[in-house]
Specification:
mainly alpha; 85% helix; bacterial flagellum; flagellum; structural molecule activity; cytoskeletal motor activity
Length: 99
């Protein structure tokens, strides 16, 4: 009976450690989080431009990777624009509230 309980304790400890690790990044505020994501979007755009330029001059012949990088950058920009729009809408809605 004791052998059965020990694995459960180990599993519970592992789950607790995962929960603590998942909660650690929540200490960032929204502006820091958004700033990091903007940097990531910028990097995706730069990578896409570099891969496109390399393909244009013949340094690479893998059109698939070029197209994937371009789509990743496009999706990231579209998502960033959508988040920006929602944030502005939320700000306007808050400003319309009467106290």
């Amino acid at each position: 009976m004791n052998n059965i309980i020990n694995p459960i304790k180990i599993a519970n400890n592992f789950k607790l450690e995962q929960n603590e690790a998942a909660q650690a990044p929540k200490n960032k505020n929204f502006s820091e989080f958004f700033q990091e994501k903007l940097v990531e979007v910028n990097e995706l755009q730069k990578d896409s431009q570099e891969m496109t330029a390399d393909f244009a001059v013949g340094k690479t012949d893998n059109i698939h990777q070029v197209m994937i990088a371009a789509e990743k950058a496009k999706i990231a920009v579209n998502l960033t624009t959508a988040v920006q729009s929602k944030a502005i809408d939320a700000y306007k809605e808050i400003m319309r509230l009467q106290v």
